[in-house]
Write the structure tokens for this entry.
Amino acid sequence: MQGKTNPVTPAGYAAMKARYDHLLGTERPEIVEIVSWAAGNGDRSENGDYLYGRKRMREIDRELAHLARRMKAARVIDPAEQPDKSRAFFGATLRLADEDDEERVVTLVGDDEQDASAGRIGWSSPLARALKGAAVGDLRSVRLPGGLKEWEVVAIDYA
């Protein structure tokens, strides 16, 4: 997704920023302290605190770099400001029914804030791509790993 904007809800951006701030302001300084204490204990090749600390610091630095890139590319979109609330766009919460009349509620969110178990699906997922622009009553087909599945849009809401 390089060079593209990263749509994200205000809550999703706040969560990314909170994670970044926690890593940079709390977790990384704690690890730096442990590593410097362990480095002063002598032989570093057999020092578990030192080796683990260095490994964890690299993981934190990688995550900080990733979060910084994602926040820089982020475009915060408030779903409440969507002008056409009759169609499914970014931030919409949809109630869907499949061919067996089983209902499912999904919210179209940024890829960084997706959580399928909570019903938040990423903006670039196959289901979200199929639902973009749908109105109540529309039927949309989605090719899933298990085969083709058809969903009817029962309701659209913007929180």
About this structure: Strands lie at 6-8, 74-76, 93-98, 103-109, 120-122, 139-144, 147-157.
